[in-house]
């Protein structure tokens, strides 16, 4: 899509602002879908994009796959639009300390994506793969750890589920998450990140 960078950034900033206002991270897939449809129909978003020779379907796809997937990364200071997030979550260095303690630190210079992950190390020389996301992303974190373990052998993994004050993970779900991690030989932890 040959959209001017200024136009693109203006739309992305507006969408990130709106996502922050509605608590995007805590919304269901159906609520996300409703908002995509609403934005496609709005003159200032969908109308502007359609004037760039995009169909309504192309607008929706761009909003979903290019903008809002970036929102999840940008929340943690990753990606092209990280400076447009009005209320960023904790940076990965803080997540690592909250999840594992002050003796652990992030060793990666740049997080890998799909899912977000870094290598962490302890003062005792122990290393682990540290991946994080919202509760709804647990299946993606597990799948990434399973794939990596199958390819590279047994490695230590820490799966950090980031929750908000407004939508904390219920205690029974936390217990189940921890059991899932134990079955695989991983640490699953829950951290308030925003």
State the main characteristics.
194 residues, alpha/beta, 49% helix
Structure in words:
With 194 residues, the chain is of the alpha/beta class. The protein has seven helices and five strands. It has helices spanning 5-22, 29-41, 43-50, 56-74, 92-100, 138-152, 171-184; strands at residues 104-106, 117-122, 127-134, 157-163, 187-192. The protein has a five-stranded mixed sheet, with helices on both faces. Strand 2 (117-122) and strand 3 (127-134) form a beta hairpin. Helix 2 crosses helix 4 (56-74). The longest helix is centred in the middle third of the chain and has 19 residues, at 56-74. The protein is elongated and about 55 Å long.
Number of strands: 5
Instruction: Name the helicity range.
Output: 40-55%
Strands ordered across the widest β-sheet: 1-2-3-4-5
Order of helices and strands: HHHHHEEEHEHE
- Largest sheet, described in full? 5 strands, mixed
Q: Would you tell me the structural class of the helices and strands?
A: alpha/beta
Low-confidence stretches: none
Rounded radius of gyration (Å): 18 Å
N/C terminus separation: 33 Å
Mean pLDDT: 90
Count of discrete alpha- or pi-helical segments spanning 4 or more residues: 7
Task: Write a brief structural summary.
With 194 residues, this protein is an alpha/beta fold. It has 7 helices and 5 strands, in the order H-H-H-H-H-E-E-E-H-E-H-E. A 5-stranded mixed β-sheet has the order 1-2-3-4-5, with helices on both faces.
Helices and strands in order, then pairings?
Blueprint: H1 5-22, H2 29-41, H3 43-50, H4 56-74, H5 92-100, E1 104-106, E2 117-122, E3 127-134, H6 138-152, E4 157-163, H7 171-184, E5 187-192
Helix pairs in contact: 2-4
């Amino acid at each position: 899509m040959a959209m001017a960078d200024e136009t693109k950034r203006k739309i992305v900033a507006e969408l990130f602002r709106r996502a922050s206002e509605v608590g995007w991270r805590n919304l269901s897939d159906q609520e996300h879908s409703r908002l995509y449809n609403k934005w496609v129909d709005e003159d200032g978003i969908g109308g502007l994009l359609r004037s760039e020779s995009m169909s309504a379907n192309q607008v929706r796809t761009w909003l979903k796959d290019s903008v809002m997937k970036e929102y999840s990364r940008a929340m943690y200071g990753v990606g092209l639009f990280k400076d447009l997030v009005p209320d960023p979550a904790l940076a990965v260095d803080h997540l690592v300390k909250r999840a594992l303690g002050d003796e652990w630190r992030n060793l990666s210079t740049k997080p890998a994506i799909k899912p977000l992950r870094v290598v962490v190390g302890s003062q005792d020389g122990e290393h682990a793969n540290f991946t994080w996301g919202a509760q709804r992303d647990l299946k993606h974190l597990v799948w990434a750890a399973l794939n990596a373990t199958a390819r590279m052998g047994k490695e230590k993994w820490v799966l950090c589920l980031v929750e908000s004050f407004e939508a904390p993970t219920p205690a029974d779900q936390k217990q189940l998450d921890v059991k899932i991690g134990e079955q695989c030989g991983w640490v699953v932890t829950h951290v308030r990140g925003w």
